[in-house]
UniProtKB/TrEMBL annotation, chain A:
It comes from Scylla paramamosain. Keywords: Mitochondrion, Ribonucleoprotein, Ribosomal protein. InterPro entries: Ribosomal_mL43 (IPR039927), Ribosomal_mL43/mS25/NADH_DH (IPR007741), Thioredoxin-like_sf (IPR036249). Its main location: mitochondrion. Residues 39-112 form the Ribosomal protein/NADH dehydrogenase domain. GO terms for biological process: mitochondrial translation. Pfam families: L51_S25_CI-B8 (PF05047). It is found in: Mitochondrion. One of its GO terms (molecular function) is structural constituent of ribosome. This is Large ribosomal subunit protein mL43. Belongs to the mitochondrion-specific ribosomal protein mL43 family. The keyword Nucleotide-binding does not apply.
From TrEMBL, chain B:
InterPro entries: Ribosomal_uL13, Ribosomal_uL13_bac-type, Ribosomal_uL13_sf. It comes from Scylla paramamosain. GO terms for cellular component: mitochondrial large ribosomal subunit. SUPFAM superfamilies: Ribosomal protein L13. This is 39S ribosomal protein L13, mitochondrial. HAMAP family: Ribosomal_uL13 (MF_01366). Pfam families: Ribosomal_L13 (PF00572). The keyword Ribosomal protein applies. Belongs to the universal ribosomal protein uL13 family. Signal peptide: none annotated. The keyword Ribosomal protein applies.
Length: 187, 178
């Protein structure tokens, strides 16, 4: 599948949280969860078991979530979750066991309500760089701004070792200094 | 986007103009140095999808130095497309005809082979001497270092420096050096 086809249907996004949720405080994003099931059908057996055993505990632990229980005859069970940002999610729980439904409810409770998309990056920061983004002028000598171009000084190769001519001149200078020193001590 | 962020964006993605002096430089080695500047891979923000190549202005391309006997042995091939339209031009002949061509062809050969190649080459400005139009020179804000030291001929030294150079002995008055 090409990226274009993928984006046509599923899209992609960066990691995000509604209003920086979880930084300093947490606001429950799940607002309402509806348990739809049948009282007689076998496909709803796990759902009926969940409602008997787990639902009261879930509602008690999550006072911010409205829990609806909606029996309907001869239709397969499902979970419908509605979120603070207007997002909705529907999950079919046909022939799921009680343990599966516990996991699905936990999944819906922790969601932000944004659609599930491919993440282009698995990390996000509001402060990408403390030092500031790179520019071409970073670690450059500011003197190059006021130079006249073309500039021989900036262009010429920096010698890594002294040349034979340079060495000869240095030896000559040393010799001259020594002779001067000898001359001054004798006089 | 605030004004500061906007200016930051310009600073990061702004195109630089580099000057390169081709005098006494091997064009084959120089191309290796110039190519990363043209395609932007010398920048830490480099990404194949972002257009971050810089401009490079090469001056003194007439004074480039090919190594060894390359001037006689290097051959540039061209075919007009017609039967019998093939020509083989020696490097020295090509250089006589157009002193910018050897550098341009060398850089073109070393650029990565994709659709961006021509556009990147268009950011390479070559001049046979050091006369660059002001419209181009005013953009230049940095200079690339040469790869080889420019040799200095004896008649390039000032007379004073030659006279003061240490000598073991003086030539006789009637000795003819040249």
């Amino acid at each position: 599948m090409t990226t274009k086809t993928w984006n046509l249907f599923w899209g992609s996004n960066f990691v995000r949280a509604p209003l920086q949720n979880g930084v300093g405080r947490y606001v429950q994003q799940l607002q309402r969860i509806t348990f739809k099931f049948c009282k007689t059908h076998g496909g709803s057996k796990g759902m009926r078991e969940y409602i008997e055993k787990e639902l009261i505990g879930f509602a008690r632990e999550n006072p911010g979530v409205v829990v609806y229980v909606k029996p309907r005859r001869h239709r397969s069970p499902c979970l419908k979750a509605e979120y603070l940002n207007g997002g909705e999610e529907y999950i079919s729980t046909h022939v799921n066991t009680c343990e599966d439904i516990v996991k699905w409810v936990e999944y819906l409770r922790g969601r932000s309500g944004y659609p599930v998309e491919r993440l282009r990056k698995y990390h996000h920061t509001d402060y990408p760089s403390i030092q500031g983004p790179w520019t071409p002028w970073i670690h450059r000598h500011p003197g190059i701004n006021i130079k006249e171009y073309p500039c021989e000084e900036l262009s010429a190769v920096q010698p890594t070792e002294i040349s034979a001519t340079q060495k000869l001149l240095e030896l000559y200078e040393q010799q001259k200094q020594q002779q001067e020193g000898v001359g001054s001590t004798t006089s | 986007m605030s004004a500061a962020r906007r200016v930051q964006q310009w600073a990061t993605f702004g195109r630089m103009w580099y000057l390169y002096d081709g005098k006494w430089q091997n064009p084959l080695e120089s191309a290796d140095k110039i190519v990363p500047y043209l395609d932007g891979s010398h920048k830490p923000i480099f990404h194949p999808l972002n257009d971050s190549g810089d401009h490079v202005v090469v001056i003194n391309s007439r004074d480039i130095a090919l190594p060894g006997d390359e001037w006689e042995k290097r051959v540039y091939f061209h075919h007009t497309g017609y039967a019998g339209g093939a020509t083989w031009t020696l490097a020295w002949q090509l250089h006589e005809a157009d002193p910018t061509m050897i550098i341009r062809k060398t850089v073109y050969n070393k650029l990565s082979k994709n659709l961006l190649r021509r556009g990147r080459l268009a950011r390479l400005h070559i001049f046979p001497d050091d006369k660059v139009p002001d419209s181009i020179l005013k953009n230049v804000s940095a200079q690339m270092r040469q790869l080889r030291p420019v040799p200095r001929r004896l008649d390039h030294y000032p007379q004073e420096e030659l006279e003061n150079f240490p000598k073991i002995f003086d030539w006789p008055k009637d000795h003819v050096i040249n």
